[in-house]
Design goal:
The chain is mostly helical. Helix content is about 60%, strand content about 0%.
C-alpha cells in the first residue's frame, strides 16, 4: 500500500512567498556584508587619518559604506518596504559606481583625487569602477537588481 501526499492547496490560494535569503541570495548578502565592512573600515580610516587630503573622495567612501550597510539590511529584512529599500539603495549604488568610476578616470580632480590609481592613498571604493575591489562594486549591484527582480515579495508581504 503506497502513501501519496496530496496537496490541500487550491488554485485560488496564493503560493507561499519566495524567500530572498536562500541559495544564491545568501551569497549575495554575504558579499554585501563584506563590502559594508570593508568600505566602513576604509572610510573611517581615511576620514580620521587624512580627511584634509581629499575630503570629497573620503566623504564618498563613507557614503558607499552607508549604502552597503543599508543594502545588506534591506536584502535580509522581509516585506515589501525593505524590498523597495533594497531596490533604491542598490540602484543608487550602481549609479554611484558608474558616476564615480567615470569621474575618477576622466576628471579625478573633481573628486579631489590626485591620480587614478584605484589602490592609491585617496581612492574610494567606487574609484575606477571598483577596480581596487576586483570590480565587485560594479558587478554586485547588477547581480543584486537581477536577484531582486526574480524574488519579488508576495502580495501578502
Amino acid at each position: 500500500m503506497s502513501h501519496h501526499t496530496t496537496s490541500t492547496r487550491t488554485n485560488s490560494e496564493p503560493a507561499a512567498p519566495r524567500r530572498r535569503m536562500s541559495g544564491v541570495g545568501r551569497v549575495l548578502v554575504f558579499v554585501y556584508g563584506i563590502l559594508a565592512l570593508a568600505a566602513t573600515g576604509r572610510s573611517v580610516f581615511q576620514i580620521i587619518d587624512r580627511f584634509h587630503e581629499a575630503p570629497v573622495a573620503f566623504t564618498l567612501s563613507a557614503l558607499s559604506a552607508l549604502v552597503y550597510i543599508v543594502a545588506t539590511v534591506a536584502l535580509v529584512a522581509p516585506g515589501r518596504v525593505w524590498y523597495r529599500v533594497a531596490w533604491i539603495t542598490i540602484s543608487f549604488e550602481l549609479a554611484g559606481v558608474l558616476v564615480i568610476g567615470t569621474l575618477s578616470l576622466f576628471a579625478p580632480e573633481a573628486l579631489g583625487l590626485h591620480d587614478i590609481d584605484p589602490f592609491g592613498r585617496d581612492a574610494t571604493v567606487w574609484s575606477v569602477y571598483g577596480m581596487g575591489y576586483l570590480f565587485i562594486p560594479l558587478v554586485l549591484p547588477i547581480l543584486g537588481l537581477l536577484w531582486l527582480r526574480a524574488h519579488r515579495p508576495g502580495a501578502a508581504s
